[in-house]
Design brief:
Elements (H helix, E strand, L loop, with lengths): L3 E4 L5 H14 L10 H8 L7 E7 L2 E13 L3 E11 L8 H15 L4 E3 L7 H10 L14 H9 L3
Parallel strand pairs: 4-5
Antiparallel strand pairs: 1-2, 2-3, 3-4
Amino acid sequence: MDFKIRKTTREDVSSILKLIQELADFEKEPEAVEISEEDLLQDGFQENPLFTCFVAEINQTVVGMALCYFRYSTWKGKTVHLEDLIVQQNFRGKGIGKALYKKTLQFAVENNVKRVEWVVLNWNKNAVDFYKNSGASVFKEWNTVQFEEKAFKNYLNRKA
C-alpha cells in the first residue's frame, strides 16, 4: 500500500480534527476534545504557527498525522514536543506510524533541536514497545502534571 507523508495544509484541518477525535476515543477520553476546525486554522496556519503537523495520505485521503511544536528545556535548549501521532485503525501495521514518527524526528534534526519528547499512556503497550525499540527512553519516575482551565482559575481565586 503506497502512502505519502507531507506537511499539512489548511485543507487538511477537517481530517486532522477527525484524527484527534479518533485518538481521544482510543485513549478513552471521547469528550475531552474541545478545539474546533477554526482553532486549528487560527493556531496552525498563522504567521507564527503554534504547531507543525505532518499527514499520511493514501489516494488523496488523510489516514494519519503527527502534530508537534517547539518547547524550551532549561537543560537542553530548543526541543520538539510530539503532541499526537495517530493512524486510523484500519491503516495500522502498514508502516504509516513509523513514517510519521521518522518525519517528526527529521523535522527535529532540520531544526537543530537537542531532544524530542512526548507522553505515552502506560497501558498502550504497542506504542511503549515501539518507542523503546526505536531507542527512545520511556521514564517511569516522571509524572505528567496537568491543570485544566476551570481548576487553575479556581486555584487563583482561592483566598489564602
